[in-house]
Amino acid sequence: MRAIAAWAVRFWPIVVPIVGVVLLVAVWNVKLGPFLIGLVAVVLAGTVLAAVQHAEVVAHKVGEPFGSLVLAVAVTVIEVALIVTLMTSGKDSATLARDTVFSAVMITMNGIVGLSLLLGASRRATTHFNAEGTGAALATVTALATLTLVLPTFTETPGPQFSPSQLVFAAIASVVLYAMFVFTQTVAHRDFFLPVTSKGKPIDDDSHAEAPSSRTAMISLGLLVVALVAVVGLAKLESPSIEAGVAAIGFPQSFVGVVIALLVLLPEGIAAAKAAARNRMQTSMNLALGSAMASIGLTIPSIAIASIWLTGPLHLGLGASQIVLLVLTVIVSVLTIVPGRATRQQGGVHLVLFAAFIFLSIVP
Q1: Structural domain for 313, as ranges
Q2: Where are the transmembrane segments (predicted)?
C-alpha cells in the first residue's frame, strides 16, 4: 500500500494530464450525466493542479524572478481559456471577464498576500521583502486595474463598457505596462525581485533545493502543454454545469467568475504559501502580484481580441462596492509594502478584506 501511495505521489502530475486528454476525447460528443459531470470536474481540477506543478518545475529550472513569470503566464493561459469557453457557451456572459479578473485581483492581493504574510511572520517577529520591486509590481497592478476595470464605469459610452476604440487602447496599454514590468523584473532591475535577508540584501541563489535537469524541465514543459489543452477542452464540457451549480445554490451569476479565479489560483496560492513558510516572502509577493498583473495585462487584451467573434456586450466596468474594495485594497497594500517588512497584523488585515470580497460576492 505504501508503495502504491508513493508511486501516486510521484507520478500523478504525469498521469493526470494524459487522463485529462483521454477523457476529453472519450466524452467530447457525449451528453454528460451526473456521474460524468462529477468525473470531468475532478479531472479538470487535477489537471489544473498538474499544469501548475509542471510550470513550477520549469520555473525552478530558470530560477527567480523568471520562475514567477512562468507560473503567472501559465495560470493566465488557463484563466483565459476558462473565460472564453464559458463566454461562448453561457447565456449571461457580458460581465464574466470583469468578474473573473476582479476576483483574481482580490484573491491574489488579499487572499494570497494575506495568507503568505501570516505564514511568513508566524515563526518570526516580521517577514521581509524588497519594497522597491514589490512596490513597482503594485503600481503596475493599480494602473492596470484602474485603466481596464474602473474607467469603463465612468466613460460616456452607454453601460459599464468601452467603445471599440477605447477597448483597443486599453488592450494596448495593458500589454505595454505588462511588457515594461517584465523587462524591469527580468533585465533592468532583476535584483529588486530576489528574496532578501532581514537586512534587505538580495539572495541570488537556489541552494535550498536542487534545480531539475534539462531533461526533466523539457518533459514538464511538454506535459504543461498537454495539461493546458486538456483544461481548455474539459472546461468547455463543464461550463454549463458550473453555471447551473451556481444558480442552484442561489448565488449571483457573477459568482461564476469567483469560482473560475479560485480554481485557477489555488495552485498559485499553495506555491506562494510554501515559499512564505520557507522565509522567501519576496517569492510569494512575486507570485501574488505577478498573477494579478498577468490576469489583467494578458487577459484583457486576449478577451478584447476574442470579442471580435464573440457575440453580445463586454461589460468591464466595476460596480460601486467593487471599486470601494479595490481602492481599499490598494491603500492597505501600499501601507503593507512601503516598509519592506510586515507582521501577522498586516496579513490579518488582507485576509479580512478577502473575506469581505467573498461575502459581498455572495450577498451583493
Answers
A1: 2-362
A2: 7-28, 34-54, 66-88, 100-121, 133-154, 166-184, 217-235, 247-266, 287-310, 316-338, 347-363
